[in-house]
Amino acid sequence: MVRFGKKLTAGQVPEWRGYYINYKLMKKKVKQYGQQLQQGEKDRRRVLKDFSKMLDDQVEDSNRVGRFVQRSCLEVITDAHNMTLN
């Protein structure tokens, strides 16, 4: 059986790879935060705050792709519309 992370990366568009949520990093951080909690290095509130910030950053990167695609589609539609007017 193929692991989730490998399936996830296999379906990515290579040119956009830098804009996807970094599953490998997130998985690593979850393990790290779990260890820090168990060892008493950080309190639960701080771990949740750190993880939340990291997740927000990852989602913002993904949102940039969506905005890029929207702008590109709008440009294509505008150009096509302008061509029909000429």
Summarize the structure.
The protein is mostly helical.
Give the tags.
3 helices; elongated; SPX_dom; 86 residues; mainly alpha
Describe the structure.
- The protein is an all-alpha fold.
- It has one domain (4-85).
- Helix content is 76%, strand content 0%.
- It has three helices and no strands.
- The protein has helices at 4-10, 23-38, 44-85.
- Helix 2 packs antiparallel against helix 3.
- The mean pLDDT is 83.
Show the helix and strand layout.
Elements (H helix, E strand, L loop, with lengths): L3 H7 L12 H16 L5 H42 L1
Organism: Aegilops tauschii subsp. strangulata
Pfam family, one: SPX
Protein name: SPX domain-containing protein
Nearest-integer average pLDDT = 83
Q: From the alpha carbons, calculate the radius of gyration and give it in angstroms.
A: 20 Å
What is the H/E order? Answer: HHH
Tell me, what's the shape? elongated
**What summary fits the major beta sheet?**
none
Alpha-beta classification: mainly alpha
Helix content: over 70%
Domain count, please report it.
1
**Amino-to-carboxy terminus distance:** 56 Å
**Count of beta strands:** 0
Flag low-confidence runs.
none
Number of helices: 3
